[in-house]
Amino acid sequence: MREAFLKRVREAAASGRQYRVHTADVPARAGYIGAGDDPLARLANEVTLVGGHAQVVEDLPQARREVVALLSRFAPKSVLCWEHPLLDRLGLAELLQNAGAGAISHASLSPLPLTEQRQQMLAADLCISSVSYAVAETGTLAVASAPGRERCGSLIAPVHLAIVEASQVLPDLFDLFEKLEAEGLERLPSNVTLITGPSKSGDIELTLTTGVHGPGEWHVLVIRNT
Q: Model's pTM, two decimal places?
């Protein structure tokens, strides 16, 4: 049976080699799709299509109302928060205080032993982050880790809310790679994560399950004017 299996693999590989892809005459922008006339609306639509919950709002006051509504819905006891200028302009700390939710941040965790840092992060009911960039074409969030923007933030809480402003939205995945290259590849952090949809797994009997290896609910709030 082993030899029969390997024989089929060799035959399939040989068959695939019959079809060559010729790239000599392919334009540099081949494959570029873009995001249409309204990249923010496209981003929200793509996020919804991959199983997330997205909303586009006009300004910071409207964004605050949406965050308050989400906090009221989930009533989190503790929220793991990024340290980010957009979240500061939003007044996130005050919103959490008014909702009675404890904020877990890099500043509050740093003085603690590593074991206690881990315990607090794992106990978070909700994570609120921003992004490095968001790709409208695919509804993808690009998150580059840094102190105060830990990579675990988007992974360990059962609910993840990412707040995005217009300047962070890129039309196409090609634009993301060009942006990162222009900023200097040597400056890239050790971890850059591309998030498209809530956590999903089909490992067990090919049954698709949401929320196994990360958040089961994924919310993206896009602000046009900040």
A: 0.82
